[in-house]
Amino acid sequence: MIDTAPNHKTSPMKRMLVMMLAAGVALVIAYSAAEISHLSSFWISEAGAPDFFREPINLALGLAGLLVWQKLSRLPDQTPPLWGSPALGLGWGWLVGCALPGIALLGLVLLQAGAFEGRPFALAALIIPIPSILIHAMAEQCVVRGIAQRAGQAAFGPLAGIGLAALTFCALQTIQGYSSLWHMANSALFGAALGFLALGRGGIWAAITGHAGWTWLETSWIGDAVTFQKNGGFWAGAGPDSYGSPVFSLVLILFLALMGTGQALQAAKEK
């Protein structure tokens, strides 16, 4: 058994080691699940079957890893972040997940670092990818939030949980190929934003749909409904969308400041 239960008598060094272990386990599970599901879907498609099994396999492996970790650890089931309200999480998380990169893209336009161009599209092209995107986001967030963030929360409190999960999410995105400076910065900042969402009433569901809304806007909406052309320069950053832009960093920092202020005010009221 791995003793990850919060215990104020445990030395800070031991709690730090437990946090590092949890982050490493979460990273290995999430990355391995993605790679195994990719290979499995390739073999299935090579055998002539439809290629829509990748994300369900990814989710199944992620949930299995989370369940094994929960069984091996002694962390109480009620350690935040909890799953929360599905209805509130799905609505609020999706709204935030779409709004943050959307605001960054508008900022790029205002700074003359990019421009939108509309294109004809079918509504189905925007709707059909949503289930797959949601499953993919759930596969990653259930592991990052359920293992890394809970371990940090149990060891040193909510900010430690958010920070540990943010670094875990950043490491996962980096080894998946988003390795430019601004991609890594935005992965960490967005991971922290999802951590704040997960501690709200929407719970882990809000983190899942926040991740999904971001992915949908940057991969499905851009490309199917509009194109976004960057004009180069510092503010454009790397890549074709807002993810590699310092403008997205500024939007995320502002969001984190607002969320942190809200948490502080709430804590002051409770006292």
Walk me through the structure.
The chain has 271 residues and is mostly helical. The protein has one domain (12-270). It is 72% helix and 4% strand. It contains nine helices and two strands; from the N terminus they run αααβαααααβα. It has a two-stranded antiparallel sheet. Helix 3 (86-110) crosses helix 9. The longest helix is centred in the first third of the chain and has 35 residues, at 12-46. It is globular. The protein starts with 11 loop residues before the first helix and ends with a helix. The relative contact order is 0.16. The mean pLDDT is 91.
- Rounded to an integer, what's the Rg over CA atoms? 19 Å
User: Mean pLDDT, as a whole number?
Assistant: 91
- Strands side by side in the biggest sheet: 1-2
Order of helices and strands: HHHEHHHHHEH
Our count of domains comes out at: 1
Shape: globular
Strand content: under 5%
How many H/I helical runs? 9
Give the helix/strand class: mainly alpha
What level of helicity do the residues show?
over 70%
User: For the report, how would you describe the main beta sheet?
Assistant: 2 strands, antiparallel
Uncertain ranges? none
Total strands: the figure is 2
Distance between the termini: 36 Å
Question: Could you provide a short overview of the structure?
Answer:
This protein has 271 residues and is mainly alpha-helical.
